[in-house]
Amino acid sequence: MDQSVTQTKSPSIQAAVRRRRVAGLMKDYQLYALLVLPIAYFLIFKYVPMYGAAIAFQDYSIFQGVTGSRWIGFDNFRELFAMSQFYQVVRNTLLLNFLDLFFSFPAPILLAILLNELRTMWFKKVAQTILYLPHFISWIIIGGLVYQMFATKGGLVNNLIEHLGLPAVPFLTEKNHWLLVYLGTGIWQSAGWGTIIYLAALTGINKELYEASEVDGAGRWKKVWHITLPGIRSTIVVMLIMQLGHIMTIGFERPFVMSNPLVMDYAEVISTFVYKAGLQSAQFSLATAMGLFQALVGLIFVVLANTIAKRFGEQGLW
Hints:
It is a single chain. The protein has 318 residues and is mostly helical. The chain has a single domain (74-311), classed as Orthogonal Bundle (MetI-like fold). It is built from 18 helices and 2 strands. It has helices spanning 2-27, 29-34, 36-47, 65-68, 75-82, 84-103, 106-117, 121-132, 139-150, 156-163, 175-202, 207-215, 220-231, 233-245, 253-258, 264-267, 270-280, 284-311, and strands at 58-59, 70-71. Strands 1-2 form a two-stranded antiparallel sheet. The longest helix has 28 residues, at 175-202. The two termini are 45 Å apart. It is found in: Cell membrane. This is ABC transporter permease subunit.
């Protein structure tokens, strides 16, 4: 008897559930409509190109395409790992990214805290606008500015140094000096824009905590150390995990524009290697194998960083 009643009611229950779902979709259809373009972007530019990863396992011919090219297994990876240049570009990519992580990652955090401590609102808004601007400047333009500023002959900085009676400094032609210029330029370009996320996180901190700390006699720096930093710790951890996920991924424009033959021991990275192998030398399979290796290592770093964050009680990415 009970089973027959359940069987008769189940279709009606399922229909009611479907009606509620449809009603929910219709109620918020504007929000779901906003998702169409982002979903289409990721499908077209992120997921569909994964089909081309098969090139890494083929003797790819541009005339035969992916479906017509001969499969050769892991031969491209064996050839890649046998190249001495492979280890150089991996070393340089890790070196530049770890240095960026060490110096560039804390910069927006410190900058956001300093901006948050400003009490003059008009000055705070002007400062934010000025700090955001470098993010919108192309690396081609930034590269030109760097050469105008730091060139050994004719550069503004070296002209000032020579006027002081000192020898010119090879900022762009000596490896260690070039590395400092590379890191400093990256901080200048990205730090201001990176403060947006941390400033948003700072707005979520309960203001009553600051008021209570003032009653207890805490100064400004103690508030920062005991309230501000713990309040944005979860955001810092998530951003750090995402940054570690890109530890093997380095932008093409920055090292390509700022490099020159005298500093290639540091400036030759995975992105420039892929460009030269894939486009200049038409070694498409080899370049794809390098890109696939790069993505795999990045995935490993993300999983490890997320696992470590979970072990320390943080939220992580998943």
